[in-house]
C-alpha cells in the first residue's frame, strides 16, 4: 500500500492541480495561494494552517479534510464538498462558497465575514463564535446548525432554512428579533 503524498510546508503557490487525487495528502502549513485545485479530490487531506488564499477549489472534494487555521481568504469554493471538514479558526472571509456542501462541518471561531454562502448546505454545522458579519446566507440550509455566540451583524438571511438551529447569545442583524415557539 502506498503512502499518501506529503507536501507539508512546501511552496506550491500558483500550481495547477485541477482534478488531482490528493486524498489523505499532508499539505499542512503549505503555501497553496492562487493554486488551481478545481475538481480535485482532497478527501481527508491535512491542510491545517495552509495558505489557500485566492485558490480555486470549485467542485473539489474536501470531505473530512482538516483545514483548521487555514487561510482561505478570497478562495473559490463554489460547489465544493466540505462535509464533516474541520474549519475551526479558518479565515474564509470574502470566499465564494455558493452552493457548497458543509453539512456537519466544524466552523467554530472561523472568519466568514463577507463570504458568499448563498444556497450552501450547513446542516448540523458547528459555527460557535463564528464571525458571520455581512455574510450572504440567502436560501442557505442551516437546519440543526449551532450558531451559539456567532456574530451575524449585517448578514443576509432571506429564504434561509434555520429550522432547529441553536441561537444562544447570537448577535443578530439589525432589525431582527429572535422569536422562540413555546
Report what the structure shows.
The chain has a single domain, classed as Pectate Lyase C-like (3 Solenoid). It is elongated, with a radius of gyration of 16 Å. The relative contact order is 0.10. The mean pLDDT is 95. Helix content is 0%, strand content 0%. It has no helices and no strands.
List the helices and strands and how they pair.
Layout: no helix or strand
Say what oligomer this is. single chain
Shape: elongated
Structural class, by secondary structure, is: little secondary structure
Quickly give the CATH architecture.
Answer: 3 Solenoid
Radius of gyration: 16 Å
Average residue-wise pLDDT = 95
Any descriptors?
182 residues, little secondary structure, Pectate Lyase C-like
Could you give a short description of this structure?
Helices cover 0% and strands 0% of the residues.
